[in-house]
Structures are given as structure tokens and as C-alpha cells.
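Q: What would this complex look like in 3D?
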Amino acid sequence: MSDSDNDHAHAQPVLRASVHDISYLTTLLRGVSFANRATITATGSGFTVTVEEARTLLATAYIFADIFDEYAYHSEAAPSQQSQDDGVDNMAFEIPLNTLIECLNIFGTAGAHPSSTTLGGKRWKKQEEDKGSDEEEGEGEGANNKRRGIAQYFGAGPEKSTGMRLTYEGAGFPLTLLIAEDADGPTTACEIVTYDPEPHLDLQFKPDEMILKIILKSSWLRDALSELDPSCDKLTFIGNPPPDGVPPATSGRPSRNAEVSRGTSTSKPMLRIHADGAFGSTEMDYPNDRDVLETFECEQNVCFSYRTSHITRAIRALQNSTKTSLRIDSEGLMSMQFLMPSPSFKSRAGADAFIEFRCLPLEEAL
Amino acid sequence: MNATRFGPDASTLYINISSTGTSFSLQLPSTLDAQEMRATLDARALKPFTKALHCLSKYGDDLTIHATDECLTLSTTNSSMSAYCRFKYERQFFSKYTLGSQSSTFVGSQDATNVTGQLLTKSLLSILRHRTVEKTVDRCELSIIEGDASEQNNDGEDEDSLESRLTVRLHCKHGIVKTHRLILQTPSAMMVPGSPGTDNESHLTIGPRAVKDMLEHFPVARGTKSDPQLVWSFKDTEVEVKSLETSLDSKGRSQLSTELSLSADEFDTYDVYSCPTTIAFHLREFIATIAFAESLGLALDIRFTDPANPLFIDVESDLTETLFVISTSQVPGQPFQPSQAQPLSNRSNKREREGDAAEHPNKYKKPMKAAQRDPIPSASATSSTPLPQSRHVSRAYETPCTPGPSNRPEGPHRDPLFLPTSSQLSVAEEAAIRSSGLGIEEMDRETFEAMMDGDAEEIGPDLANRQASFTLGSDQPDSFELVEDVEMAPSQSESITSRPSHKGFKPLFED
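A: Here is my prediction, written as C-alpha cells for the whole assembly.
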């Protein structure tokens, strides 16, 4: 390694990003924080955070560049290779995810961003979370948070929120975070050690062989998962094709009659989530109703089981998500994508970030 | 025995049997007659039902469900059997309530129809208490299907099962249906409360709010194992409540001792048999009771007799009847009430025991349990009808009528259930026995019997009675303790077991 290379690295860090409010970023990171070791893969258009569990579950948070105020990616690769600018170009490193989240929350301000979704339970939960984490900050910070909450809707300047700048110089360097609680408040510099990336599971979802596709409000799935008895270890998703020729009930207020006929005519529910536990079993049936299942595509009967503990890993992501797309392919690989609404005006124009969970089914003789 | 057939259509036929008044007849769950119960709760009824379950979960871990034609009963007993809780729902409480046999054969009127089962309270409560339930559930169907029947669901799925199951079907908004199936165990033992109706009963009625406001001054440390006791002294015009000083916090230190008095005017009914009466009982279950009564705005009906008999609390609303039984314990340092002074039947020990009672006023009496294990899961466990005297099966749990202290002052203490065993003699009592100079403290049974025989002329009638009680209880393990007591601790006032033969028996614990 020559000195010039080193200088180059210093001048042009591989990744440099800054954001004036870290809460959205933290929310996304928390959605996948069930395992500590995460791989961050940076590209020109953003980065992904990937964790896996038991070689079965792979969770990825897709964080796009436009949620940041500033985002710069410089490939370590030689400029000649850089010309093939087709997204293959990336740089990966591993990082202890929990440490990263703790650092971001070092002022206790990362937990309570006023989300654009209006889920009562979620809001309450966040406030409680916040309360738990910033005990030492006292009243002043609480008031500050409130002001920030209102200012949010007026597109207030960055001085009301905790800002962050992250820098990654390249392989072998730590991830450097500079966190400012306020525009004129204290700042913290953190350096988090990084590791060489380990290869992850290669779970390729085959869209061509998709046999079940459901889009539903995240709250339905969240409620279903949270109601499961902790003793349940197997969770089965059962999809039945909608009855012949009956289109899903149109959205809007379903009439009383429609509800009655639905109850009687459809013998099999379109979506059933079944769980077996130590004290009995649980079944949740979802009808053919646009209010519940916005999209339901299913050609044949589908029945795949998954380990409950893996699926419930998604609860945290679900809590902050508005919509879920749940797909299963012919081999039973399930892909759940959770749309994570962005609170800021700027990124609302662009794509919202999302979190994807992919999970292999349990082997079983059907 | 009625023939029972299970045809493919058996599950569709339900037979409702009118009340026959024979609800106490034995119905073993192993009979081939698989019963089932279906009850539907609307959203309005679900709330108090969930609150009841919450209260039950504070009392005990296991929930016993007992369904008869007329009512559905939920009951539980805590692990030490010092507290019992029972909720009885009339069939009108439910928007739909059917109980029937899956068998198409008509069940003879001699067989009372009932369905029983037991499960962990928590597993049912966690389903109904979930925060989404209150918001989204339109109605809730509970059904119990007893096992050993080839049973077909309404869904058309065949699910043969040997286990009894409780199915909770939650019909939510948007047509979402959540079905929880919980496995039911056969109740190993029915818990049955004693029947309190005695002459010296004190009766109080108070609104839950007043009690709650008062209890707020006695904080219970949350999360710790501490279970403080309160001492209640019922006087002519006021009630003194104080925390029992022996209750320790988690670090073993004595907690703040609080004492406050409550005017008798706070009570809607204030009818104390003899003032002052002092009782003590644990707070945990009592608080759960208050919380339940307060959430539904129902008044508490409190009954108690004396410091060793349990406290009974009735909370009644239109379609619900709730009974709480909490064991009380004797307060150390509280003198016996005059009404409880013991007349002595054994003249040879009489003098010494009188002195004993005076010198050791804080003689400890073992508190009576709030509920008793009934080995037979029978139909009438929750029936409060006193049983006919002739019934053999109830014998072991019968106790004589507790008479008024005026004419039969020894009354409450003849209850064998709270006789101290020989191992429970207080130091003072042992000292008293030793000081009696009789040498009986080291005496074994044969020697003692020999000695007692010598006194036969003196104590004739009593001995005869004692023997009578011996034979009465001799087939029960419990009663051996009783016999031992008589042998080992003759100086104890409580050990008087004479049962005047003319007295009618009344069941303490019904089967």
C-alpha cells in the first residue's frame, strides 16, 4: 500500500452520509436488530443492512440515499471498474448493530420521532420507550421533544433534532459517527469497529414461481403475531384461492348483507394463520375483504409452516410499518416486505424505505 | 345406564335438559356421554367476563369451568387453598347458551347435564385480555367439547380428539375470525367452599370505592413476593385497620406500620355479631376482589364469623353471582373473645387449662382453609344447597353446625379442620403441658389411653363422644390428625371434639 492510496482513502471516504434527524434511520435499524452482527452494503443509491438467524431467516433494511441530507459513496474499486455503473458496485462491511443503535441513541433522542402513521398503540409504545431511555435528561428534554414534534409539521430546521454524520473510510477502518443532540447542544463522536463481511444466506425469492401474494395493513399482521401464545413454535400460513368468479368485496363500507353472505358462503377463509402451542392451537382467519386484504393472489391451495420465533422477529418492523406485502413462492420461501413510512417531507417524494424478511419454511411431510 | 350412540349427525343435535334439581348427583367425566357447552358473549358482556378472569387469575393458577343448564361457573383456589373465588353466570348473561349431549339418546332426568374442565387461567386470559380484543371483537363464542367423542366441527374439519377442549372463537370486525383451542384437563379435584351460615355471623355491606380508598394507604410492593396482611378490628362505631407488623419487605425489614380507622357509617350495613371482633387476612386476593367490584361498580357483601373461619365476600349483579372466600388468621396479641372461651369437658385438665387461656391469650389457632379438596369431581361442586344428612359421600367433609356461643359456647372450636396438630403446639402450650405435672408430654399413645381409661367415670360422656368422632372420621386421612391431637394434646382447649349427638350435621364442604 502506498501513501497515495492512503491519502486517497482519507480524501474520499467510501461512505459519507449525514442526516438532521436520526430517528427514522434508527427506526429502520431497529426493525432488523434481532441479531447483533449486521452487514452493511453500501452502493451509490443507498445502503442495506442485513442480518440473519439460524441460516433460515434473512432480514434486510433498504435505506435509500434520499433519506439522508447528504450521501456520498465512493467506490474503493479502481476507476476503470467503476465505470460499470450498474449497481453491482458495492462495498460491504460488518458491524455490531446493537452498538450502532446504542450510539445513535446516546442522547436518548432516537426513539420518538413523530411518525406520519397514526397508530395509537405504536405512538404510545414509542413514548414509553423514550421515557425508559432518557431518564437522566429530565424535563427539559421532554419539552424539547414535544416542540420538535410540532415543528416537524412546519418543516422546521435541523436545530430541533438530533443530527448525525457517519463516515466510513474503507475496509479496516472503523465507522465514525458524529452525533449532535441539537444544533447548539453537545456532540458525541463514536468509532465503531467494523469487520470483514461474512457471506450471507442466499435466499432468492423467485417471482415467477410465486404462489401466494398478499398485501395487507401491517397492523393486521402485527396483531395476529402479537396474539400468539409464546409457547407456539410452529406457524402455518394457509392460503385458499378465492371462490370462483367472486371478486374481492369492493373497498369502502361493506354493506351488512355483504358481511352476512361472506360469513356463510365462503366456507374456507382466504388466509388462515394457524399456530400450535403447548396449551392448544390458535387460528386466525381473514376473509375476502378489501378492508383486510388489499391484494390477494392465490391460484392453488398454499400451506407452509415456519418457526414462530422467526416470524415474530418481524414484530418490531411491523410496529412502524404501514403496509405489508407477503409472498410465498413454490418452495415455500416467504418474503415479507414492510413499507416503512418516512416522516420527512423531503423523502416522501422519493421511495420510502422498506424492510424485507425472508424465511425458509419448515420441512414437513404434507 | 343409558345407551349412548355416536352417529355422524350426533354433533348436530343438542338436547337441553331442564333443571331437575338433582344437580348434585355424581356425573363422572369418563362416561361415554360426551357433553358440550356453547356460550356466546357479545362485546358488552365480554368486558366484565374478562375482568372476572383477571380477578380469578389473581386468586389461582387453575381455572375450573363448570357448566350446567342454568349457569356457567368459573372457580379457582390458590395453591395453599386459603382463598377461593367463584363466578357464576346465569344463562341469560350470554347471548346464546346451549348445553347438551352429543349423543342422540335422551339423557334420563336422573343424570344432571354438566360439563367440566380445567385449564390455566392465564392461557384463557391472555387471549381475551389482548389489547386488540377490546377494540375489534364483536362477539366471542366459548365452547367446551368434552373428549372421547368423534366430533366434527362446524367448519367441516374432522378433528378427532380424546381431549376435552375449550374453543374460544373471536369474531372481529371485517369478518376476521380468530379461533383459539385450549386443551382442558379433567378437574382433579373440585374445590368447594364451606358454608358459612351460622348464628354468630357478622354482616357488612360496603361499596368498593370506600374500601379501595382505604386500601390505598396500605401499599403492596409490586413485583415482590410480599403478601401483607391487614388486621381489621370491628368495633361498635368504627373499624380499625392496621397492617400486620410481622409482614416484612423483600429485604426482611419490617415495613411501615399503618393504622387507620373507618367509621361504621361508611358501611351500608354494619352488623357485627359481637364487638369487638378482630380478624386478619392477606391483602392480595382481597385487592383483586376490590378491583373487580370497583370495575363493575358493585357493592361488597362481607360475612365472617370468628377469627379462624374464612371471610366470605359476595358480589352480586343481575346475572352474575360472585363469591370470594379468604382464609383469615388469628391475630397474635389479640385476646380471645369471651364468646370463644372454652368450656372444658375433660375435668382432669380443666383447672390448668383455664389458667392457660388466661396466661397465653395469643394462643394460635390454625386458620381454616377457604376451600377443601374434594376427591370426586361431582356435579354439585358449586351448588350451595346443603346436602341431606344421609349422604355418605359428604360425610367426611361435614362439620357440625356452629352453634351460637350463648348456648353452646364451644361451637367454633369443635371444627376438626382447624385443630392444631401436635407439631403445632406453641411453646407456651407445651410448657403448660409440662407444667401440669402430668408428664403427658412424653407420653405415647398406649400409656395415654391407659391413663384416660382410668378417668373414664369422670369424663364418661365426653369420651364416648370422642370415640364417636373417632369412628366418624376414621376413614379419612385428615381425621388421623384429629385423633392424634386428642391423644397428644389433651390440655388444649381446641381439641375438644365432643359432638352432642342431638345436633344436626351441616356440610362444611359440599361435594
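A: To summarize the key features: The domain at 202-309 of chain B is CATH 3.70.10.10 (Proliferating Cell Nuclear Antigen). The radius of gyration of chain B is 25 Å.
Q: Very helpful, thank you.
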